[in-house]
Every structure is written in structure tokens, then in C-alpha cells.
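Below is just one:
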Amino acid sequence: MDTLEVQITLNPKSPWNEVLVAELADLGFDSFVETENGVIAYGDAALDHQALLQQTSLHNGFDGNFKVETKVIPHQNWNAQWEADFQPVYVEKYASILAPFHDTAEAPGLIVIIQPKMSFGTGHHQTTWMMTKALFELETIPANVLDMGTGTGVLAIVAEKLGANRILAVDIEEWSAENAAENAASNNCTKIESVWGDVDKIPSEPFGLILANINKNVLKAQMPVYSRNLEENGTLLLSGFFETDVKEMEKYCQEHHLVPVKRFQKDEWAAIQLRKSN
């Protein structure tokens, strides 16, 4: 499948680049790279980017200057494109998220090797960075973990490395599920089951930890399932929304017996740690 690359140059850049990532993720784009002057969005070459961009803040509130450039990347060139863009990610002292071609000799913390292909979740985005940090700062890692919207599988890999005995990694995109399985194998992980699908793929068994880094609308739609499948006093880690959405998200979570425990913030993005309480 060919991939559409949409490069958007913004002046001013912040906070509009973050807003666009959230909006374009809702409109069907799969992966994003932050640039010095804006953002690059990737999606299926069949996407009507002009019509979709009309639905974003670029044409509804943005009061600066912007430029949009597009090109189609043939399927066989996708990895080369990512290799050119992929820089190491360091999550404080906890972890280094690297590509196979990076030098691991001086990388701090837990080493996670990711070949991203077309999947979101390289650690570059603030939400993945916060979710990784949150995993390291949990007192314990439960045995049974659910990773919704796994993308590259980076959070599932970290969860196994930190002691989880079984991780169900689910993604709605087939190539993401395949990529997560490949990355799990590359990191010598044997306890991750990568599944293509949605919430219908979640078994009725309880999970001690649920990870969901998606976007606000999907998180709210799936919240009843998270609450149902989270064991009593289990932990839910959420991200994929802005700091300005935190109060709304916490209120909605409390309606589903999920009590806020801790907040994380990086730039304009946020993550929340919650506990199941009946």
C-alpha cells in the first residue's frame, strides 16, 4: 500500500502542530513526525487530504501562515523514509527507544529497539513518552496487561521488560498488529500476544493494568470496556489528549468507577493514571 505524506509548515508552530496531530489522527492519518517548523502526517495514499485539511484548525481558527506539501511514498520505500527521520528517544533515565541502526553503547536505561514501519508509537510523540515514564513509575507491574492501540508495541515491550507475565496488545490496524509482533520478537519478548482488531477482541478476563494511548473520543467510547475489564484496584493509564482535556476526562472516568491517581504533562499533552474502585 502506498503512503501519503503531508508536510505542513506552520507559523506560528505551537500549539497548532499538537492540535493538528490530534485532529488528523481522528481523520484517518496513522503516523506523525514533528519537524522544526511544523508536522508531517502519514496515511493511506487514498486519503483526500485537501478535503480532510478543510476540517482542521488550519481552516477553522488558525490565524497564522501555513504551507502544505504532499507526496506519495511507494510502499517499498517506507522503511527508508522512517530511517531518515527516526531519532533516538530518551525517556529521562528510564529508557532509550532506538531504531535497529542506532548505537546502543551509551544509551541510558532500558533499551527498546523499534522498527516502526507504518505504526504510531515510536516514543517521539509526547503521549508515548509519558506513558513509558508512567510505566516505570508504577510501584508494581501487574501480571496481566492490556495494551489498547499498541502501534509499534513499545508500551507492551516495556511492560514485559518490567515484569508483566502476559500482555494482550490490540490494534485496529492490521499492519500495526504485525509490526508490534515483529518488534516484540526483536526485543526477545515472549509474553506479548499481538491481535488485530478492536475492543471486541478483549476477553472477559480481568486485567491488572490497561494501557490506552489513542485519542479522547475513542477513549471515551471505550471507557465502559476498560472499566469492565479492569480488576478491582487495577490501574488504567490513559493518554492521547491535551492538558486542557484532563478535567473532562477525569470526570468521565469517575462516572465509570475510575479514580484519578496521578497526572503527567509534556508540552500541551497529558496522561492520567487511574485506579478502579467500585
